[in-house]
């Protein structure tokens, strides 16, 4: 092992895995979990007949990162490696790629799709894998795709299947599962172990070496006093009170304090209630109130002008798309107060003290002669963008040599960064072209980001796993981890709670590790049997729910104007993923907007233009057209943008999996036969 370059603590945690046991390696961020996994893979390939190693990751970026920077060097000269993700053409013949490679690094969703796909060129059996490595395995819980894969494994194991892969999980923390009592935290850790059919190991004999190699940052609570006056926020609240009076809130409904997450949950429920009761006044007022509440939350952590601009971005596009008296009132209220809001937001006397504290921290860590790298973690893409703009426009920060950029998640959402943008940003940070990343949670785990000497958590309320992942980014010597929060605010309470939960997790893991082998195996087998039975019940309920209504008896309405635009029987499911409308009459209900661009290979489909409701001035976004097999142009809709009239009343659903009818599978052949004239016009 020494020849491979492992530290003593890494050698200790891989011992049982080398013997062929199912193991979860628990090491902190920066502790070299992946390096240890590469060593296990190497030994497995050397000692196992017909070895086949599969490395599962949660993101496309990680698949390429592990291939290039972790596995390729030590294994590439002796073994065939492949990196495959949903972004690459190889996914279309994944079964063949898997068959020819010794080590396959892929996104978990791709393996799950391959396990459930019956086509020979795409199918993979769990029994064909001899070692399954699961990165960031604490996600193996609930409905995560990791757990779907392992659910198949556990069911086969309980049925007596012998040809199953060895499991190697990697995590910086399994967490306490939201529990605050030790025995409950122990149950959570045992559940993770049961889901992965693995024991959890950590270093016992090399703790000092681990602390030396992975030093913890100095923690700093940067407390700011509550600003004495907040006329901008008070003005927003006064406007919200006028909307409350106008909308006639149902007497059985109590709204909690505005400017809180609880209020946001309340108005989301009010909007749903308005839709189900065919009460547009209630529904639309709730939508607008959510924007006001968002602005209050932004005002709490950013500049007043950021909150004002957020409101402008919402209202300006709808100034000329008023469709009834409710929106006449809502838009009129904003227009009447627009000038006053801007004046208040421009007054430096009432500016947010958090911004000054953030500036002070950055100036202490950046400047002439200081080779600093830092990350500011913020809650949303909007906050990250606004903070980045503030840094770039701040003369003192620019004089200190700060070169900042945002880092957000990559994906198909039009607001996400593209993969290339994300990779270029991280590369620039590694090459010192940038020295400050302003990031959402995407930078907490997984991404190959160089060690930093400053990590700032700004306006965040997250669990103990996210907190540990974020602090683990501050791995440089004498690094600093700062929490900027208002005195007596929720961030400090959450941070203190997370510290307790981190300690509780350690105690829970120790208790699990101290169990006898017989007791441990008995407990996880019992948990596995319970989980299998629970999944069967849930699947039965979901099947019943999906067949609760006939598709022909469900009508789709625009979520904003309530106009009926399609029937459930018009919907088809494409590749078990996309929901499209095949009725040609649907085209008369929408108008086409801008082209949607996605920076990746998508197989048989590519995005077209965005589509929105064309009923009067509605303009509600519905989804986008998709070009399928380079021929068919199909409207691809998101159910969250619609309401559904059913025989049992009007309902709304956020995701397609929760609708109460079963859409038919899309037949490209039938579609072509039914649209021959259109295809060749």
Kindly describe this structure.
The protein has 681 residues and is of the alpha/beta class. The protein has 4 domains: 2-212, Rossmann fold (3-Layer(aba) Sandwich), CATH 3.40.50; 215-224 and 352-487, P-loop containing nucleotide triphosphate hydrolases (Rossmann fold); 231-350, phosphoenolpyruvate carboxylase, domain 3 (Up-down Bundle); 551-679, Metal Binding Protein, Guanine Nucleotide Exchange Factor, Chain A (Beta Complex), CATH 2.170.150. It is 44% helix and 17% strand. Helix 11 (280-301) packs antiparallel against helix 12 (304-315). The protein starts with 7 loop residues before the first helix and ends with a helix. Residues 677-681 have low confidence and may be disordered.
In short:
Helices cover 44% and strands 17% of the residues. With 681 residues, the protein is an alpha/beta fold.
In terms of topology, how is this protein built?
Layout: H1 8-18, E1 23-26, H2 33-47, E2 53-57, H3 60-75, E3 81-84, H4 94-100, E4 103-107, H5 108-116, E5 131-134, H6 145-158, E6 166-171, H7 182-196, E7 199-201, H8 207-213, E8 218-224, H9 231-247, H10 261-276, H11 280-301, H12 304-315, H13 325-345, H14 353-365, E9 374-377, H15 381-393, H16 395-399, E10 404-407, H17 419-430, E11 436-439, E12 454-458, H18 464-471, E13 480-486, H19 490-513, H20 517-546, E14 555-558, E15 564-567, E16 571-574, E17 578-581, E18 590-595, E19 605-613, E20 621-628, E21 632-637, E22 642-646, E23 649-651, E24 664-665, H21 668-674, H22 676-679
Helix pairs in contact: 1-2, 2-3, 5-6, 6-20, 7-19, 7-20, 9-11, 9-13, 10-11, 11-12, 12-13, 18-19
């Amino acid at each position: 092992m020494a020849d491979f370059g492992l530290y003593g603590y890494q050698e200790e945690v891989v011992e049982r895995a080398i013997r062929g046991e199912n193991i979860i390696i628990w090491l902190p961020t920066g502790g070299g979990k992946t390096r240890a996994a590469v060593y296990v893979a190497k030994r497995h390939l050397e000692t196992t007949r017909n070895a086949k190693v599969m490395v599962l990751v949660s993101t496309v970026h990680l698949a390429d990162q592990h291939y290039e920077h972790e596995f390729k060097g030590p294994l590439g000269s002796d073994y065939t490696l492949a990196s495959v993700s949903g972004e690459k053409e190889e996914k279309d013949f994944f079964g063949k790629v898997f068959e020819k490679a010794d080590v396959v690094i892929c996104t978990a969703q791709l393996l799950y799709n391959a396990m459930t796909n019956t086509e020979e060129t795409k199918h993979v059996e769990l029994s064909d894998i001899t070692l399954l490595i699961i990165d960031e395995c604490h996600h193996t819980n609930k409905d995560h795709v990791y757990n779907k894969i392992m659910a198949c494994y556990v069911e086969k194991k309980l049925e007596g299947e012998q040809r199953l892969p060895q499991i190697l999980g990697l995590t910086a923390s399994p967490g306490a599962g939201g529990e605050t009592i030790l025995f409950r935290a122990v149950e959570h850790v045992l559940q993770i172990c049961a889901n992965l059919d693995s024991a959890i190991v950590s270093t016992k004999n090399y703790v000092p070496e681990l602390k030396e190699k992975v030093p913890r940052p100095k923690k700093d609570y940067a407390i700011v006093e509550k600003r004495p006056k907040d006329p901008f926020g008070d003005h927003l609240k006064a406007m919200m009170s006028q909307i409350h009076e106008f909308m006639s809130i149902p007497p059985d409904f109590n709204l909690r304090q505005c400017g809180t997450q609880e209020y946001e949950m309340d108005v989301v429920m009010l909007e749903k209630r308005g839709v189900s009761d065919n009460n547009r006044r209630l529904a639309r007022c709730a939508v607008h109130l959510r924007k006001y509440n968002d602005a209050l939350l932004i005002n709490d952590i950013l500049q007043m002008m950021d909150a004002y601009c957020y409101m402008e971005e919402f209202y300006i596009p709808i100034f000329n798309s008023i469709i009834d008296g409710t929106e006449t009132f809502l838009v009129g209220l904003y227009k009447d107060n627009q000038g006053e809001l801007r004046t208040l937001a421009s007054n430096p006397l009432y500016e947010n003290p958090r911004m000054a504290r953030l500036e002070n921290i950055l100036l202490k860590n950046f400047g002439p002669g200081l080779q600093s790298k830092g990350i500011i973690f913020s809650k949303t893409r909007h906050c990250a963008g606004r903070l980045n703009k503030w840094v770039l426009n701040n003369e003192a920060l620019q004089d200190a040599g700060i070169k900042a950029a945002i880092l957000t998640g990559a994906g198909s959402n039009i607001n996400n960064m593209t993969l290339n943008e994300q990779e270029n940003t991280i590369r620039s940070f590694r090459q010192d072209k940038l020295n400050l990343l302003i990031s959402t949670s995407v930078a907490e785990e997984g991404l190959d980001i160089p060690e930093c000497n400053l990590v700032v958590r700004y306006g965040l309320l997250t669990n103990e796993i996210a907190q540990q992942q974020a602090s683990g980014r501050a791995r440089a010597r004498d690094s600093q981890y700062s929490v900027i929060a208002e005195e007596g605010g929720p961030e400090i309470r959450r941070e203190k709670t997370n510290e307790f939960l981190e300690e509780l997790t350690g105690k829970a893991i120790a208790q699990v590790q101290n169990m006898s082998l017989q007791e441990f195996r008995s407990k996880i087998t019992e948990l596995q049997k319970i989980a299998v039975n629970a999944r069967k019940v849930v699947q039965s309920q979901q099947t019943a729910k999906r067949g609760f209504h006939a598709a022909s008896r469900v009508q789709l309405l625009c979520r904003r104007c309530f106009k009926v635009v399609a029937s459930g029987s018009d919907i088809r499911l494409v590749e078990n993923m996309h929901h499209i409308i095949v009725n040609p009459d649907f085209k008369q209900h929408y108008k086409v907007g801008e082209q949607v661009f996605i920076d990746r290979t998508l197989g048989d489909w590519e995005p077209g233009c965005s589509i929105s409701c064309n009923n009067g001035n509605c303009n509600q976004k519905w989804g986008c057209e998709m070009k399928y097999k380079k021929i068919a142009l199909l409207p691809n809709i998101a159910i969250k943008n619609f309401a559904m009239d059913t025989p049992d009343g009007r309902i709304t659903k956020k995701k397609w999996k929760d609708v109460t009818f079963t859409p038919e599978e899309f037949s490209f052949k039938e579609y072509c036969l039914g649209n021959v004239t259109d295809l060749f016009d």
